[in-house]
Amino acid sequence: MSTQTQTEAPTKNEPRFARVRDLWNEYLPYWFMAPMVIVMAMITVFPGAYDLYLSLIAEPTLNVLNAEFVGLRNYETAFTRGGAINSFVITITVVASALLLESVLGFVLAALVAGVDSSGAKSFYRVLFIVPMAVAPVSLATIGRIMLNSEIGIIPYVINTATPFAAPAFLSDVPLLTVVLLDTWNWTPFMFIIFYAGLSSVPETLIEASRVDGAPLWRRYLHVIIPYMKPVVFVAMLIRMIDLFRTFGVVYGLTGGGPGTATQLVSINIYEQMFINNQPGVAAAMAVVYLGLVVALANVVIAKVGFEGVWD
Amino acid sequence: MATRDGPAESATGSQRLEKGTRETLVKVARHGVLLTWSFVVLFPLYWVVSMSLKPPGQANSLPPDWVFLPTVYNYIQLAQRGEFVTAFANSVIMVAASVVLVLLIGVPAAYVLSRWDIPRERDVLVWILSSRMLPPIAVVIPFFVIFRALNLFDTRIGMVIMYVSINLSLVVWVMKAFFDGIPETLEEAARVDGATRFQSFRKVILPAAKPGIFSVAIISFIFAWIELLFGLVLTSFEAVPVTLYVYSFIGSRSIEWGMLAAASTAMIVPVVIFLIAVNKYLAAGLSFGVVIKE
């Protein structure tokens, strides 16, 4: 046994200090876990419970005992006059279409870049394609406002002058499409970089074997590469889906939920109910339903596809 | 390259003669698509930067002035607004502090999750992930109330706590995967040499996990930096982040386009440079460890 070590045996130091150190080492896993568990409880259990409580009372109060419980009245208001259904439909539309678009585009770009011969060109594309991720959604909204503006925007100008078509008023005629396209610009890099790393991890031998079998390119992707990458594709899409449900900044900055309620995502609707209409109960009721929906959906996905490679 | 795909492996031998031509065609098509996307990525950035450098009056003229004399007028105007400088400094301080804090909390916990047999570990990991599933708007209402009660409303400390909350799950997940990839024999060797549990963690495991810690710090920084909602709800003046300042521009009735472009540029450019500098670490962090675990 090697005795050459940078540490002294604890008993050589004063005994009280050694005792503390023993406790520290003895229960290391607990000390290491405790702060995380406390913070996690604070940010998951507390908001969930508080939203639930808030959704069941008439007026918000810090005194739980004084609260006047109104049952499901806030939920009823949310779904009858609060536009909750409309918001849920819009949110799911945005999440589904952006997720699909970003996944396909991210995969195609990753596969194309992975096949570039010159290493210089390859790293040029790889670095450039992740750049939009650095743009905050609210900055993206300002860029969108500048470039899509019907009077001063470069994009409507180019469409109007260079093509026979008349440019739509992006923010009022096709607001949902505009939101999806801007999010795609912003977050395709996320899919691209994960898929690129995933593609690089496919063993050469596997591809070689299918090449020898004479499988055409699309078959090779469909039957060899994508199945191999399944965990990567799945985790990337799950994380992106979860984050898409958080979408707020780009819509808030771009359209503020309008025109009318055309882009009123659930998160925007809750924000308005809470801070503009001053209806915390209705806002909380929507938040509870939203929370349940997202957690349930994510759990279904996790249960269905499993998390191979993440835990054993 | 593992995923090298080209026409050369075509199944039919009869096409062998055209191989050279087809290869060139594929190459052209490939770079055509990639250059198109490069343009899509770059043009909006070019546009906002060039707009920020145009003198007032030229900023939004159509047809656009492709050639113009760049001026930093908009930036000087911006710098003279104390609120912008404060907001920018706020963001830098709050986001940096939150990254340090989230690493201090998340990395040790991830280490334990990786090395010890935790009862119902799978449930614990899903619970941790679920904190990211909570839509921020659902989280922010309770915190709005509690922050007011605890005098944390509109404070940097309050915002740091919120930024930690959005990134903690990410840190734990990515770092767990990283620690899983570090062979246990490394620690065992240190333990045999007489190191305590903590010493082996600090002197052996942490250095080995450095790339993971680095990548997760970058991602945490970005996610906190781009956050708008928490600033919108939980600050009013003192702890306003730069995202909120940029937003307040759009909210005003007459938009000063040049300054809006300058503010957006000031927010984007440092992060882009930072991102390019550290891009090789990004993939490992973003993929929650699935990729490196193969």
Automatic annotation (TrEMBL), chain A:
Signal peptide: none
Record localization: Cell membrane; Membrane
Membrane topology value: Multi-pass membrane protein
Gene3D superfamilies per UniProt: MetI-like
Keywords: Membrane, Transmembrane, Transmembrane helix, Transport
Entry keyword annotation includes Protein biosynthesis: no
InterPro entries the record matches: MetI-like (IPR000515), MetI-like_sf (IPR035906), Sugar_ABC_transporter (IPR052730)
Biological process terms in GO annotation: transmembrane transport
Main location (coarse class): membrane
CDD domains, per database record: TM_PBP2
The ABC transmembrane type-1 domain, residue ranges: 88-301
PANTHER family: GLUCOSE IMPORT SYSTEM PERMEASE PROTEIN GLCT, TREHALOSE TRANSPORT SYSTEM PERMEASE PROTEIN SUGA
Protein name per its UniProtKB record: Sugar ABC transporter permease
Annotated source species: Halobaculum magnesiiphilum
